[in-house]
Amino acid sequence: MTKVIKRSIDWLGASVLLALVAVLRRLGDRGADRLARAAAGMARIAVPSRRRVAMRNLRRAFGTSRNDPELGAILRDAYVHAATAFTDLALLYRLPPNGFGSRLEVRGEEHLKNAVARGKGVVGVSAHFGPFPMLGVAVPTLGVPLSFLYRRPKNPRVAALFADWQARAGCGIIEDAPRHLAGRRCLEALGRGGCVCLLVDQHYPAGVVVPFFGHPARTAIGAAFLAARSGAPLVPMRLTRVSPGRFRLTIDPPIEPPADRSREALTACTARLTACVEGWIREDPGAWFWVHRRWKDLDRQEDARVP
Fold this sequence. Notes:
There is one protein chain. With 307 residues, the chain is of the alpha/beta class. It has helices spanning 2-26, 29-46, 48-62, 68-87, 109-116, 135-138, 156-169, 179-191, 222-230, 263-283, 296-305, and strands spanning 104-107, 122-126, 146-150, 172-175, 195-199, 208-212, 215-219, 234-243, 246-251. Strand 8 and strand 9 (246-251) form a beta hairpin. The chain is globular. It starts with a helix and ends with a helix. 36% of the residues are buried.
């Protein structure tokens, strides 16, 4: 019975997603933006557990420097960013082939070009910040093939939709499991001169502990390890939404790969990447995905002390 219920929920979720994409394909930029904002408001109210997680994160990150009304405004903005990041994916269905470039402003393109010129490929470093999936569209417009290290959807209908979007975007996906094959495929993509993009801002149980907003956060070392193994420079990059249907790609100067694969070197590099992401968030706090339990270890320690 449990499997039947799970299959039914998966089918219903996939049906809702496909129906929503069908609606978004027919809406213009402004209409999709209004729909996203309405959905963001409903999601924020409908799932109080996620809202509590986000407020806990915000208080931990900003301490007494922001009051609760200010944190609430950041949270509302974060829900809007998350909703528009999804609706922006449907933009490719409304644009002519290769039409995204006219919607894109690029800052720091020379950093990416200089990194590519080294001939080792590029380890792109980003986060769940702004419309981050659209990096898969933005970077290829600069003539650099991009692959995300990510997990494909398990539902076959959603996977088919995702594959169609990939084809339109011109980006690739490298499965993150099994891990040994994922590493090999990443190295192959780098060897072809491409960019392999990893998101480095989520809790990773087997990761190293580095500072994030002044608190210890367990973080994956995959980006640092891949750079050390390949010699590819690490290039932080982020996408922001300028207005409905228009975007800005900001590429930061390259970070040198770790000198070796020792835990100390990989941890130091990961700390530097995490500090870079923190800087983005401090600049635009509403653009980050605050509902994720980024400090899960601290949450458990605090919860254990509650009588």
